[in-house]
Amino acid sequence: MANNYPVIVVGAGPVGLLTALKLARQQIKVAVLDQSPSTNDSPRAILYGLPAVKVLHQAGVADELRAAGYTPTRVSWRKLGGEIMARLDITYPEKVQDRTLVLPVGELTSILYQSVLKEPTATVLFNHKITSIKQSNDKAVLNVTVGEAGNTVDNDRQAIFEADYVVACDGASSIIRKSLFQNEFPGMTWEKPLIATNLRFHFDLNSLDYDDANFIHHPEHGHLLARIDKTDLWRVAYVDEPNLSPEEYRARLPEKMKIMLPGNPDPDQYTVVAMNPYRVHQRLAPSFRVGRFLLAGDAAHLNSPFGGLGLTTGIVDAGAVSDCVGAVLSGKADETILDKYNEIRRDLFINESDKWSRINYLRVTDPDPETLLERDRFLQTMNAVKGDPAMIEKLKEIEMAIYHDFTAYYKQASE
């Protein structure tokens, strides 16, 4: 017997949970299926830009998230050793609740998960692994292997789930995307991997004139140094040599930190809380819609996290796809809005998220940091802002470019 839902979301990461939450708050019955035994708290994204904050406000969780995280005030771009090339005050917009947010993605996921559990029309099912998919004119079908609670998915039980629509938020290795397009995921992979580490410093970094977020530019040691929370926990995300094992990256860490970090600290001056090496990609699925299946987040696209355009773009996807699918199910729009979702979100990824994240990666790893400022108009612009209201408004407009309001395609909007 099939399990029937108007919407099934595949993937209980932040994009999937946010999609489910926004649908549930439209009184739409939704199930989230995830093959893991629980949510994932590995060190990944920490920063959410203005477009993401807007969507989180729409979902009703922004205030709780901000209380758990913090609002950064300054960002700087530096040479190795700390010399500042450019610095920007980011205390805009005027209202603190509308500004950039910093919060570890594990905490974001936890808060979203608890919010979804409170919704009477939402269900989250772990240990549910999609094995195959199919669709007809009126439904999407998922064949699912169900594992015992608390264990990884095994061949314990087979189940069938049916839905009017399935939203794939199951990440870079998405089984839904692979089922729809096989191995077709056009794009490229950067040669050097990114090593995301969380470090707790045993010295006062603030006394060394470092900001909440610091981009350090160097061809071999380019990295982001960013405060994670209100304590002395910091993210150091850096490029390293390719094709090494996790153990080899861990062994190289003390030397890398001594070269990269302020004051050239020894290992006893910090604690490694977490470490996660991963490949960095720029990829885009052929389509975000195939019939009753839709893609969002990393299942749909991948890009460099430098500049905070990774999960921010995924969160904006979640807001868009939930608005579009919800509108179809409630009669506010016909199915053509799903084609609009595919067309517009793909276009914005190509022309905004992918474009700028590539530029950000290349800027951080620039081969000649000594001449970078004189060559880079972006850095020159950051120095020119100096609180100018017109320039600040222009920066906000540029940052919000990845957002699109799909309610403009609702029936009442055109009547």
TrEMBL record:
Domain FAD-binding residue range list: 5-347
TM region(s), chain numbering: none
Annotated GO MF terms: FAD binding; oxidoreductase activity, acting on paired donors, with incorporation or reduction of molecular oxygen, NAD(P)H as one donor, and incorporation of one atom of oxygen
Cofactor: FAD
Alphabetical keyword list: FAD, Flavoprotein, Oxidoreductase
Record's protein name: FAD-binding domain-containing protein
